[in-house]
Design goal:
The chain has one domain (about 75-355): Methylamine Dehydrogenase, Chain H. It is mainly β. The chain is about 10% helix and about 45% strand. The protein is globular. Strands 1-22-21-20-19 form a five-stranded mixed beta sheet. Strands 2-29-28-27 form a four-stranded antiparallel beta sheet, with no helix packed on it. A four-stranded antiparallel beta sheet has the order 3-4-5-6, with no helix packed on it.
């Protein structure tokens, strides 16, 4: 029997964390099928099967290639903030907040000018995700394994940190609370915004990588090719869920009324899922590493975590809308907040506002 192990990911960059997620997904995927077979045979078999399936899908039209439009870039990118490190952004009540995983701080800035308008606030060890809601900013720190609440008016941390599962990497606010997914413990935790305590949780057998809320549910991408729909109403201290298989190594995630969009790294596709029926209704080929997904200005935006490009897709056809937008660096986060689409890049660390044309 093969035992899946998880090394400590403390201090890893976003790119290294994505690589670790891929490695874990491949390890889990190969466990049942690799017994008694040399590893190279299993890998070659998987690659051949993927190539065969992709070829059949292209011929039948199930997998729609996005192609490249002859038009120019569909948007421009305006640099707003430059920093040593950026791991997240949120805009609340007209103020922007930039998260810095290296210094463990969050800081207020002016979304229009990019000027810092407040002091840096310490929020934990390696904070990697931030969201606003219920009158607070919520920050998940992947090394200290907790979530802290920040009062955006006073700029101070409220109460004690809330302990969650090991390696929290993503959070979302809505549907009754603050939802946190922890990569190494494969858990989803529900935090009450009133008591700032975990009121329910669930361990997902397919893993937990990224979370989003919308269309009456909580959505979580799993390391082993699945998307989970979680009911926002706990049953005691547990959470009910169902899952659907999407592409390989799903990470990127966005929810709109009537559709859930998933970016699949290994298969280089974007999957559209009907939220009520929990069925795949479209699979679209995309270039590069679709690590980040956002829906804005009537388009689906796909951020490449390797090349630093941003592609816009027509949500009805999955085809490219104009040429790719070149960003300052690899896309670390793609967030719609305060009526703006924000791209957080690495190497260099910049926060760019994406302006559709």
């Amino acid at each position: 029997m093969t035992v899946t192990t998880r090394p400590d990911t403390a201090g890893l960059t976003g790119k290294q964390r994505r690589a670790e997620a891929r490695r874990l997904a491949e390890q889990r995927r190969n466990e049942p099928s690799s017994r008694g077979l040399p590893a190279v045979v299993v890998i070659l078999g998987v690659v051949s099967l993927v190539a065969l399936v992709a070829g059949i899908a292209l011929v039948t039209g199930f997998l729609t290639p996005t192609g490249t439009s002859v038009a120019g870039p569909v948007a421009s990118a305006r640099t707003v903030v430059r920093a040593e490190s950026l791991s997240g952004v949120v805009v609340s009540d007209g103020s922007g907040w930039a998260l810095d995983d290296q210094s463990g701080t969050i800081r207020r800035f002016d979304p229009s000018s990019g000027n810092w308008t407040g002091r840096a606030i310490h929020v934990g060890s390696y904070p990697v995700a931030v969201a606003a809601g219920y009158g607070k900013l919520w920050v998940a720190s992947s090394v200290s394994n907790d979530v802290v609440a920040v009062n955006p008016e006073s700029g101070r941390v409220v109460g004690a940190p809330v302990s969650v599962g090991q390696d929290p990497v993503s959070l979302a606010v809505g549907e009754g609370g603050v939802w946190v997914v922890s990569l190494q413990s494969d858990t989803v935790s529900l935090i009450s915004p009133l008591t700032r305590t975990v009121t329910a949780s669930v361990a997902l057998p397919y893993g937990a990588v990224r979370v989003a809320v919308g269309d009456g549910a909580v959505w979580v991408t799993g390391a082993t090719d699945t998307l989970a729909r979680i009911s926002p109403k706990p049953v005691g201290v547990s959470l009910n869920w169902k899952a659907v298989r999407v592409g390989q190594t799903p990470i990127g995630l966005a929810v709109t009324p009537g559709a859930v969009w998933v970016g699949n790294l290994s298969s280089q596709t974007v999957t559209r899922v009907n939220p009520s029926r929990l069925r795949v209704t479209g699979t679209y080929a995309v270039p590069g590493d679709p690590d980040q997904i956002a829906v804005f200005d009537g388009r689906v935006w796909v951020g490449d975590g390797e090349s630093g490009t941003l592609n816009a897709l027509d949500p009805s056809t999955g085809r490219a809308d104009g040429r790719a937008v070149k960003l300052a660096g690899p896309v670390r986060a793609l967030v719609v907040s305060g009526g703006t689409l924000w791209a957080d890049t690495a190497n260099p660390a910049m926060l760019q506002a994406v302006v559709p044309r």
